Amino acid sequence: MEKIANYINGELIAPKSSQYMDDVNPATAEVFAQIPLSNDKDLQYAIDAAEKAFPVWSNLSVKERANYLNKISKLINENLDELAKAESQDTGKPVQLAQTVDIPRASANMEFFAHAITQFSSESHAGINSINYTLRKPLGVVACISPWNLPLYLFTWKIAPALASGNCVIAKPSEITPYTAYLFSKICMEAGLPKGVLNILHGKGPEIGNAIVSHKNIKAVSFTGGTATGKRIAEISAPLFRKLSLELGGKNPALVFTDCDLDKTVDGLVRASFTNQGEICLCASRIYVEKPIYEEFKEKFVQKVRALKVGNPADPSVNMGALVSAQHLNKVKSYISLAKEEGGKLLCGEEAFELIEENKKGYFLRPHVLENLPNTCRTNQEEIFGPVVSLNVFQSEEEALSLANESEYGLASTIWTNDLSKAHRIGEEIKTGIVWINCWMNRDLRTPFGGMKNSGLGREGGLEALKFFTEPKNICIEY
Ligand code: NDP
Questions:
Q1: Catalytic annotation on 247?
Q2: Considering only CA atoms, which residue is closest to atom 22 of ligand 1?
Q3: Catalytic residue chosen out of the listed positions 144, 168, 188, 281
Q4: Same domain, yes or no, for 105 and 203?
Q5: Portion of the chain with pLDDT greater than 90, in percent
């Protein structure tokens, strides 16, 4: 069985512990690779390598660093099919989704920040007989930790700006989906990335992940994952006075008004609810519909959801593959039981469906739609992170806004209306870091990305990311 290797100091190497854990294909429940269980010794080796690489890497011209990122971007494109299959094998997502979204976006992340760093400028403030200018210097060795739902997509979203701005990186993918990060190590080697600039450590979050974020020489942590883990990282980081970027969970509201384009809205919300099996932090999970169109929306929405095909991720006609793990499937199922206890009525989700022989043990679940749940119940308040949405009714714009904002989370929202003034009004008042009007997951990599409240701290994307990974230093000259 193939053994995944850590990528440290420019080389693929086995963990010092010689211990491994299983990498499971969620669509078949079969083990297909072994994942290194890294420890403090691997970490120290990686930090030493990164610290040694930093003075040279940070002093390269932006053009030289951009060239490396562009090479990596190109190699991702050249290996698109292999990477997409690997991503599907690790996550259970449809291969076609990985081919059209995950892997192209990973390549775009590298290319985008290669360009962005060459356009990055800093401020200058002219005073009376004085001038201030601000230098932005890389921080040193930084940590990038990413989750399992969009593995290479989110891994590169952090690594690209960190490297572009001159830092050296210790990165950890999720132990549940490490394989494309391993392939990415090989791509970095092929691109000739200088040794020690990027180091990828595999293993368990509470072990090597915790060790990385606890290491005093790590100057900043860019983390995407659950709110509970984010809180723990914030607690560890506070006494170290280090920079933190936390992209955490969501419980994203969608507001559907009577004056929307109903068919477009239904299509948009089916996509927003169930793309990637509902395992995207941006997925809609609470859909609020204005009373006059509630029944019509419900009928059309449920009909489309019932038509979604769940099954073999390699089949291009499939809309949803397997959930990422047995443990996650059980968690999502437990929320469906809870929803029923809380008075929820299931509108679809329990229909029988066929799986081919090799997928019979896989972690598949049909998309579930519920209604009749109070806004404050756990099903409507806690992140499920799977193919489960609730439909809810509202009677006025004020009520819609108040229901949407009644949440500890504040990541993303969608508003469906043809009334431009209303869209702007709500867009301004809704408490989420990202608002999409009549669309979902329309991403422009230049925009600030992140959440309010328990959905995170700071913003990624464009200049925000380059600012995060650099320290401003102001210099004042009197003349
Ligand atoms: P986790 O918080 O469990 O894990 C995220 C990453 O952190 C993984 O690499 C994990 O490693 C690692 N980790 C776990 N424990 C620690 C620790 N104590 N110290 C350091 N690192 C640790 O989240 P999930 O992987 O379950 O991801 C799902 C969550 O991510 C959802 O809440 C989702 O909303 C959120 N998310 C947010 C996004 C956003 O942009 N706001 C985007 C995508 C997802 P390991 O897996 O090996 O345990």
A1: yes
A2: 205
A3: 281
A4: yes
A5: 100
Q: What is the pLDDT of residues 20-53, one digit of tens each?
A: 999 999 999 999 999 999 999 999 999 999 999 9
H or E stretch covering 95: helix 95-97
Q: Are residues 405 and 330 in the same domain?
A: yes
Residues of the chain scoring pLDDT < 70? none
> Residue 25 belongs to what domain range?
2-248+455-478
Residue 382: predicted pLDDT: 98
Q: How far is the CA of 250 from the centre of ligand 1 (A)?
A: 13
Q: Which amino acid is at 269?
A: L
pLDDT value of residue 242: 97
248 Cβ closer than 6 Å to some ligand 1 atom:
yes
Per the CB < 8 A criterion, the answer to whether 203 and 4 are in contact is no
Can you tell me the distance from the alpha carbon of 342 to that of 324, in angstroms, rounded to the nearest whole number? 26
Residues 441 and 471 in one domain: no
Question: What is the tally of structural domains in the chain?
Answer: 2
171's enclosing H/E stretch is strand 168-172
What atom of ligand 1 comes closest to residue 451's alpha carbon?
Answer: 41
- CA dist 418 and 265 (Å) reads 11
Residue 29's contacts (CB-CB under 8 Å, 6 or more residues apart) are 326, 361, 362, 363
pLDDT at 161: 98
Q: How far is the CA of 226 from the centre of ligand 1 (A)?
A: 5
Examine the domain organization and report whether 195 and 328 are in the same domain.
no
Determine the residue of 145, 155, 237, 247 to mutate for testing ligand 1's pocket, defined as the one with the most ligand atoms within 8 A of the Cβ atom. 145
Cβ of 281 below 6 Å from ligand 1: yes
Distance CA 31, CA 177 (A): 12
Q: Report the CATH number at residue 442.
A: 3.40.309.10
For the CA of 148, the nearest atom of ligand 1: 25
Closest CA to 110 of 149, 80, 153: 153
Q: Tell me if 204 CB under 6 Å of ligand 1.
A: yes
Å from CA of 345 to ligand 1 middle: 31
Question: What's the CATH number where 44 sits?
Answer: 3.40.605.10
Q: Check whether residue 272 and residue 344 sit in a common domain.
A: yes
Please name the residue whose Cα sits nearest to atom 12 of ligand 1. 205
So what's the pLDDT on residue 444?
97
